[in-house]
Specification:
mainly alpha
Length: 117
């Protein structure tokens, strides 16, 4: 945990990230990778939630981002940019792997930062 108080604006953005990550976790718990090939609503939901996470991450102060290297800020922001700007060529395998393998640890870290764990 950083040795300073998290600014209100950063706290709000961290909450947005956590809320979106929790939704992703909920969606993939009741789905399979094959569901992404069949269910466009699931694809659009996950992609939109990743966009929210990336946009919120990009709005967090550099001071806070620099103090928490455990969160891969540039990767998160980069994924958001890729999803927004290359929407026609989204790799569903990456969406699924990120949803199932990276989101749980992001949730853990965000809860720790927000003193929710």
């Amino acid at each position: 945990m950083p040795n300073f108080n998290i600014k209100h604006e950063d706290n709000v953005r961290l909450r947005h990230m956590l809320d979106a990550a929790l939704e992703i976790k909920q969606y993939v718990q009741s789905s399979t990778r094959e569901d992404l090939d069949e269910d466009r609503k699931l694809v659009h939901s996950l992609v939109r939630l990743f966009e929210i996470i990336g946009e919120a991450a990009g709005q967090i102060s550099e001071e806070l981002r620099d103090s928490i290297p455990e969160i891969p800020w540039s990767v998160i922001i980069g994924m958001r940019n890729r999803l927004v700007h290359a929407y026609f060529s989204i790799n569903l395998d990456v969406v699924w792997l990120t949803s199932t393998e990276d989101i749980p640890s992001l949730i853990t870290e965000l809860k720790r930062l927000l003193n929710l764990s």
